[in-house]
Amino acid sequence: MPEVNDPQRLGGWTRFVTARPRLSLLAALVITALAVLAGSGVADRMGSGGWEAPAAESTYATKALEREFPASQPNLLLLVDSGGASVDDPAVAAEAARLAERLAGEADVVGVRSYWQDKAPALRAKDGKEALIAARIEGDDKASGEVLDRIAPAYRGDHGPVRVTVGGPVAVRHEMQTIIQDDLLRAEMIALPVTLVLLVMVFGSAIAALLPLGVGIVAILGTNAVLRGITEFTDVSVFAQNLTTALGLGLAIDYALFIVRRYREELAAGAPTRTAIGTTLRTAGRTVLFSALTVAVSLAAMLVFPQYFLRSFAYAGIAVVLLAAAAALILLPAALMLLGHRVNSLDLRKLLRRGRPKPRTEAGAGWARFTALVMRRAPVFAVVTSVGLILLGLPFLGVRFGTADDRQLPASSESHVVQQHLRDGFPGSPGGSLDILVEGEATPAQYAEYRDRLAGLPGVLRVDGPVIEGRSAYFSVLGEGEPVGEASQRLVKDLRAEPAPFDISVTGTAAVLVDSKAAIGDRLPWAVGIIAVVTLVLVFLLTGSVLIPFQAVLLNALSLTAMFGAVVWVFQDGHLSGLLNFTSTGDIETTLPVLMFCVAFGLSMDYGVFLLSRIKEEYDRTGDHEQAVSFGLRRTGGLITAAAVILAVVMVAIGTSRVTNTKMLGLGIALAVLMDAMVVRSLLVPTVMKLTGRASWWAPAPLRRLHQRFGLSEGESGRPEAAQSIPERDAEAERVPSGA
User: Fold this and answer.
1) pLDDT tens string 90-120
2) Is it true that the peptide bond before 466 is cis, omega within 30 degrees of 0?
3) Could you tell me which of 270, 385, 467, 621 has the fewest CB atoms within 10 Å of its CB?
4) What pTM did the predictor assign?
5) Cβ neighbours for 368, distance < 8 A, ≥ 6 positions apart
6) Would residue 77 be called left, alpha or beta, if left means φ above 0 and alpha means ψ between -120 and 50 degrees?
């Protein structure tokens, strides 16, 4: 059939992306190559922290103490093991003193202090066989990591009568950054081939299966270049690279699946290549654009939080979503223009069939029967499914928030081993003390009176200090219980409330947690409000309904309950810790639930938009509400399920990380995606729309006029192919490979 260039059927965008397809793809190849160069080394410029609030009291106090009293904030620890001897043995003491003196002479190392210097009990193990040399490496994460790489080999290992192991916060951060990079490469090596196999099974055609991977690679490499540029202006967390890979592959596959599927439908209906692309972009292309906006908004909401850990995911997420959508809407149509009908080439499933004829079945027949069953028993399915999801989420009511520490790392990692020795064998608890920065003139009597009042507070075991330097000083307060337990958090509030004759600022692990929780609590309503309002507006513009946007937001939130319940049951309470190979800390890092909510909500809306767009298209065409719901599920049920399974594979690959937070992120979002696609989209959406009936599409007259003027929809009433009956359209769809 000759190509059709009817301006009524070919929009300006179609003409633009199909005019010079070879030139478009060549330009994309050049830009991608430049992105590879621009994004090289991005991981080395990223940080592994970012959980603290920059403007918080604890952050201010920590920086002031690092500047004025570096010995009070050591980030490098040398654990000196004397073997069978006592750490007070003359030979052990002499070797340890030599190591401490040598460390004090290293460039960029300050505040060296050892047990052998002043016999501080906190630096000596209870059994007398181990003791510590503490110091501070100056500089940011990158600079301190470089210093650690330079000096650590000279101290690690055997030195005469002692054996030295290197640990401390700087070693934890550096080891975490290295492990994350290694794990990400392994995850990509797992995800890419498995994803390709699944795409071949879905599409049948090896050619069609390669297209989503191409879109994903462009999005990932482009985002790395964007992140490299952002690191010139602000801090970016190394964890954001995991989201780049997961969303780059996941969303590229979603968008490419949707576009290629629609394009093949149009080809099967007899449309010429250019016309098929035009129809695809007017329909599926608009849906992809809507989906990208909803996901980007969900991720952009993390910009309201002050912690750079969360903001980093917004930078990475927005970039990868927009680049995936741009590649799907520009490069993919150009590739389809060149391929034409060859997009169906290399059907590898023929090798499995070995010449047996493929059984002919009505397209989507299984989904049609399933949807009919669900809608006939709508009240039962709605109640049972909703109650089941709520029950799965109940463990989250017992969530306890904490901070990330060395136990994020594998139990065998050197820095984790050092910190575990401190937890098990040293008095007090590493990181458990609270430091009080004092600023302003004070007399010895005022210091003594303030110290006595601190010692009398509930839960205080010991007060050390003051250590005075000019107009500043600091006290160390050791409290009862765990470093970030409820008792320690109450003590932070008591210390801050205690009157003092000078300016004070409290810091320490518990203080950082208190400030982080306060910062998140203050900004969380804004983030949720932004996501909810923008989602409501976008879904209204897509559907023209007032009720459906609220249904979408509510059902999306309900789909996340299983994820949050599982996070607490598994990672906080420690169930399956042996199987999944992680150390449970008894709490959840404060920022993780926020991050998981924003990412999972956006991905859920991604599938919601795909489904609602086809339902809306059919409802506009026929005016039959139940028929439209059935048609939408019949056309997108298999597609959404396949996309969810593939995205879950990518997230599970990320979840194989040896760092607990990354494992939690990957496995948690994989669960959320599967629950959304297989439970919410398959059961709750059709039952709720059945119960609400035609009222689902109601909107007051002013909003109807607003939608008529500004709304976007996938379907176009009045186009020639819209007059076909549903059986005729399904018969044409049979000519498309059923997996697509």
Assistant:
1) 999 999 999 999 999 999 898 898 999 888 8
2) yes
3) 270
4) 0.85
5) 362, 630, 633, 634
6) beta
